[in-house]
């Protein structure tokens, strides 16, 4: 019975191919509808008191549809919040990734060796940090250290947001009823911190 969409149930009752006493109940995730020939032989008396005519019932959101919608809402909010830490743009993402790679690579080399590299070697291995070092007059080590600090700050905030999103999605998925799924979504605390 749960496999029938509401409009199928509606048309089967009207055509007499299904009896009204086997309609799904609210606990099945559907609107409770019963055939009421005294109201309209072609319509339904819905729990809200409305009569829907011509064998058409507006589908009620199923538990699966609700879950899909709530999970998408969590994903959208996560993306919005994470983009406050990272800026838009494909080129910007490329730059972030390259700077992160340079910062991580810079950790593996002693400062004396790093600053002792020739300019052409620095440009090949650390193009962003080298250009910034030349422009600002800072040592390559100082620029890479700043990259590392920025990367860690950004990663920490994005990790916090990601943790909240993953917990929210897990809670929504494991909630067994429509009300519980809505409550799980309402309980999401995007301001949580460790």
Number of helices: 8
Q: What is the string of helix and strand elements?
A: HEEEHHHHHHH
> Which radius of gyration do the C-alpha atoms yield?
29 Å
Give the % helix: 55-70%
The pLDDT mean sits at 75
Low-confidence stretches: 1-5, 11-58
Instruction: State which percent range the strand residues make up.
Output: under 5%
> In terms of quaternary structure, what is this?
single chain
Q: Which term fits the overall shape?
A: elongated
* Strand neighbour order, sheet with most strands: 1-2-3
Q: What's the β-strand tally?
A: 3
Question: Quick gist of this model?
Answer:
By secondary structure, the chain is mostly helical. It has helices spanning 6-15, 63-82, 90-107, 111-116, 119-125, 127-136, 140-174, 178-186, and strands at 33-35, 44-46, 51-52.
Please give a structural write-up:
The protein is mainly alpha-helical. Helices cover 59% and strands 4% of the residues. The protein contains eight helices and three strands. Strands 1-2-3 form a three-stranded antiparallel sheet, covered by helices on one side. A hairpin with a 4-residue loop joins strand 2 (44-46) and strand 3 (51-52).
């Amino acid at each position: 019975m749960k496999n029938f969409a509401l409009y199928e149930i509606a048309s089967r009752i009207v055509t007499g191919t299904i009896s009204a006493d086997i309609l799904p109940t609210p606990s099945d995730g559907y609107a409770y509808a019963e055939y009421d020939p005294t109201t309209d032989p072609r319509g339904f008396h819905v729990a809200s008191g409305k009569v829907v005519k011509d064998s058409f019932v507006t589908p009620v959101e199923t538990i699966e549809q609700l879950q899909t919608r709530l999970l998408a809402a969590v994903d959208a909010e996560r993306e919005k919040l994470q983009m406050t830490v990272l800026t838009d743009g494909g080129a910007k993402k490329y730059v972030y990734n390259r700077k992160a790679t340079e910062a991580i690579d810079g950790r593996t080399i002693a400062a004396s060796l790093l600053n002792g590299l020739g300019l052409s070697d620095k440009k090949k291995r650390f193009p962003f940090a080298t250009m910034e070092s030349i422009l600002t007059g800072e040592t390559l080590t100082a620029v890479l250290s700043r990259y590392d600090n920025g990367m860690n700050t950004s990663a920490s905030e994005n990790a916090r947001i990601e943790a909240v999103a993953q917990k929210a999605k897990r809670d929504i998925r494991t909630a067994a009823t429509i009300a519980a799924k809505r409550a799980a979504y309402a309980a999401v605390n995007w301001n949580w911190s460790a």
